[in-house]
Known about the structure:
CATH topology of the largest domain: MetI-like fold
Organism: Paenibacillus mesotrionivorans
Structural class: mainly alpha
Strand content: under 5%
Number of strands: 0
Protein name: Carbohydrate ABC transporter permease
Amino acid sequence: MRARYTRGQNIFNIxxxxxxxxxxxxxxxxxxxxIAQSFSTSDAIINGRVGLWPKEFTMINYEYVFSDxxxxxxxxxxxxITLMGTLINLAATSSLAYPVSRPEFVGRKYIxxxxxxTMVFTAPLIPNFILIKNVGLMNxxxxxxxxxxxxxxxxxxMRSFFMQIPSELIDASRIDGxxxxxxxxxxxxxxxxxxxxxxxxxxxxxxxxxxxxxxYYINKPSLWPLQVKLKKLFESDDISIDPxxxxxxxxxxxxxxGIKMAVIIIxxxxxxxxxxxxxxxxxxxxxxxxxxx
Length: 293
């Protein structure tokens, strides 16, 4: 049966649709322009003739990027940080959130208060830098994964989800002879796919966009993630890489804008491509704690 709306509701729905459409266009059109520039020639970009559609279509910008080993090395570093870091995040967050969510855990309130304290009062940059240096994580990829293993906000989201798991289910598992680890891996984690997918996306996006920490803690160019490599490209119009063809070298020195746009697309697509596969779990995970039984 089709719902009937009042005149005021119809006006609100139309206004809401128009507003959201304008916001979506404001976000999507600049990205469409970046795509168009990545497939356009240097002359078209310099003369400002590229709008939402490529001018003088060419693939030379992507051919140049694909020939640059340093960009692919940075891409591989970002992939490694994203996959390994997200696994560390989910393992650490769930390991802390699950016991704190169970009523039989003694002292859980004090742990929650300590986590909340870190959410309100964060450590300054210099103490963090000294800590990373003293524990020997400088110029290692672990510096981008270990310090932020647990996010306070994600901890509370996951804790709320675990608290909704019926205690009767946990008690029945214990009566059947399951240990705590067996309960976690056989019962709790399979039921936690929505929240794991949601927080996994948050953690993965954070690792993929790793930028400031990489600037602070990584001095070796071979360990730079893709975002730092992209920053270096934008800092200088003279892109110095070792391409396979001298024609590519001439392109880099005359008009690097198309190359920069191509790198932006390569840096953006992986996260965009992953989201549709996790969209269903993501929506379910965002509903955690919104409905109380």
